[in-house]
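To close the chapter, one final illustration. This time we ask the reader to focus less on the individual chains and more on the assembly as a whole: which components sit near each other, and how the overall shape emerges from the parts.
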Amino acid sequence: MKLHGLTAWELRLRFQDGSAAPADVLSDLKGRYQAVEEKVRAFARPPHFEEDVSGSSSGAGALQGIPAVIKDNICRQGDPTECCSRILKGFVAPYDATVVEKLKKSGALILGKTNMDEFAFGSSCETSCFYPTRNPWDLGRVPGGSSGGSCACVAADETIVALGSDTGGSIRQPASLCGVVGMKPTYGRVSRYGLVAFASSLDQIGPITKDVRDNALVLSVIAGHDGRDATSVDLPVPDYLKEMEKDLKGMRVAVPREYFVEGIDPEVREAVTQAKAKLGSLGVTFGEVSLPHTEYAVAVYYIVATAEASSNLARFDGVQYGLRVAAAPEDASALIGMYKQTRDKGFGAEAKRRLILGTYVLSSGYYDAYYLRASKVRRLIREDFDKVFKDFDLILTPTSPTPAFRLGEKTDNPLSMYLSDIYTISTNLAGVPAMSVPCGFSKAGLPIGMQIIGRPFGEADLYRLAFHYEQNTSWHKQKPKL
Amino acid sequence: MRDDGLTRRTGRLANRLTGKPAKNCLYTHEVSDTKHAEMMNYEPVIGLEVHVQLKTATKAFCGCANIFGSRENTHVCPVCLGLPGSLPVLNETALKSAVKVALALGCDVKHFTKFDRKNYYYPDLPKNFQISQYDMPFSENGKMDIRAQDGVKRIRVKRVHLEEDAGKLIHPESGTESLVDYNRAGTPLLEIVSEPDLHTPEEAYVYLTDLKLILQYLDVSDCDMEKGSLRCDANISLRPAGTSGLGVKAELKNMNSFRAVRQALEYEIKRQAAVLEEGGSVVQETRLWNEKKQLTLPMRSKEEAHDYRYFPEPDLPPFVISAEEIDTIKKELPEMPAQRRRRFMEAFGLCEKDASTVVASKSFADFFEACLELYGQPKKIVHWLIGPVSFQMNTRGQDMAELRLTPAALTELIDLVETGKISQLAGKDVLQEMLESGKSAGKIVVEENLAQVSDAGALLAVIQEVLAANKKSVDDYKAGKENALMFLVGQVMRLSRGKANPKTARELLVEKLRSL
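The assembled structure is written out below.
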């Protein structure tokens, strides 16, 4: 097998015994990129394989010499950070995000930036201002989104590991659709400093990897308190690699009935049911529970997330950086005209839809009916989870109601697109950690993922369940034919 | 709330378009005396919103230096530039300064508070929202006792909250583009809002003066209106005298001095009274004070007011100020001006006027107390401070800190005068020389040979010279004009460069004149 098909853990072993060096991996990845990128289009811009790797295998970092890619909304000094939006055209970040600093410090080699839905607004990677990314398992289908580029990149073996960001499912849904492992950590577990904000109270950066062990490895590198992010939490980071090896005996897992109702694809339901049976054989006990406020999650999310986005994205106005379009002759004021023209030409349709929605729900006279009420329901959703976790260690659900859909299938119907995140949104509203792990394939050969949800800062428990499941299945070893 | 040239322009445009009667928007100070009398039937109701820049070492939400007057855009970072991906982190020192002010104003400091985003577009606001506090300011319900014309008056302070300042627009004379300097962006700003308890422009003036003094005593701000480290907006409405309802208010902006606040309020009282007298109604709007024309002009109406879409700042978790922290800050509070004035009167026997004058500048009062430690005569010190030292400060345009004077140097000088070594007049010259050369009073007296001369022999020569040079005054004196003697004494003092003992000189002069 070529080196690009290996995991970070496997490469580490090869670097240690001297049977491979980082330069070999880069060279293999370059070949792979040249062979498949034209079909997949996972990158936002051509990556750089010319990293100086001299001595990079000798360091002691956890990801020493391991190639990684990051989503285009994560700042890396000297690199364009455009969030796949025209409005940030030409913006080169003058600083490193905290996660980039940590990756570099651990010895990782950052190849480049991956494609995404514009400002992470989307579930299919089709709202990127560049081009849609395609699902490596079926090039006529979407990879999911918004971290579709990172997930497709991992699935297509164009990188070893990747980082994405997750506001309502943007790591887990594409991970599920691409057959890779994606983790959205607890809110506050990973610093958001340097992540271009979509919805500040929901965003988290997380790892996207080929298997659970790599995921735990990358999270141990990027997790931890950061003085530059006031919402990052000062709690010790457990040794995930060690914790996940503990057996599953006595682990209690809840299955919420609200997640298995209409709209779920029968093949997805079947795959998750099979996974449940497998886990049962490993010592896990199950119980059915209710998360009664689930039905409000999508509505609450599209109020809170768009409200925060409307304010977070106000700064893209043509004044300091990125796109600037001069006022048109009919504009009464040069300044307001510049604002209007810049934002009109700079943002795509989905971004505009969300910014208008967010502006509306915060407007005087509507705040109480929308934002305030949504904040209250958000608290109820969080309490639903608290209640379940009194009796259970984890919650198991499907990640996405369907396997990957066709390109263009949902672009004309925003609501059906929004519903593809129906299983993932609640956890962002509650702030709890959740991950997607491959658990089967549809008859058409499309990957299916299951979602594991845990207590705040209980990532080790998620990894433990996922690791043992993975050890006893082989879904993660399947590769798309490209 | 900031002035906003943009809406200012659109505001004017809108008014032109709606063609409102001139009396509502362009009232121009043509008030007859009869109308003036009628105005007395209205009571003004005034509330002030004061913005104060806190002089912390670093900005409110990042580590950049908080310095005024540097080269443009040299104290900036991703956070205060609002670059994509940056996040704010609260500067604890700024919060502590803010709590100090709130406690000094007798506010309740909340244990639990949060920040909010105030959303509006303007190029000096890098994120197009300002981090501010909306419905849960960290402190409320304070008070200030001001010394109004008719005695001490209690003005309630509605709230004090912390927010970030914006950058500054620069409009070069040539060229069609405007420039932005972000050095000020993100510096900590305190908003102090009074209840509408002020009823005259003079009270507003005194409130501002007293507030500024408190802030200076707390050493939290430079309070320099010209540099913009203190800004004031005023809300004013009129109501029929003797009633308690509230009329429709106007918000006044763009006043660049306390005097301008007073003038703008005086103008606005006349304008609103004239509108009401003519049977019209005051329009709720924001008006800008025009210093040149000495009048207020409409900027934007209530309908044009911004919808700031306030919502809780998701990047800053709500924060807790513990009772212990509040207690610690309370204990560290310095003596406030009112307490100090009282102490100076009681402990040192100063009259209220002198005590107020000394206390009105913290550095002045500190200097006074430092002198007292070296020289136990408070009234003599006050006499010198309010007199010659103040004179020097005014003519030099320097404040106490800039003046080249130490308490030891001044008390040495006072002692030389009080012990008769030099005359009072020479003392003033010595002070000037001290400030210019930095030499001690004693050294100057020796070098310039300024020791007071009481010896008749030494003075006679001078007197002869004066008499010879001023024949007319001599004749006047002889003709019975007593004033002429004063003039001659003055000439002796001048010719002796202040060295002559004035008493001896006068006696000798009278003696000489008699013998002529």
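Chain B has three domains: 5-320, 335-419, 456-515. The CA atoms of residues 30 and 415 of chain B lie 58 Å apart. With these observations in hand, you are ready for the problems at the end of the chapter.
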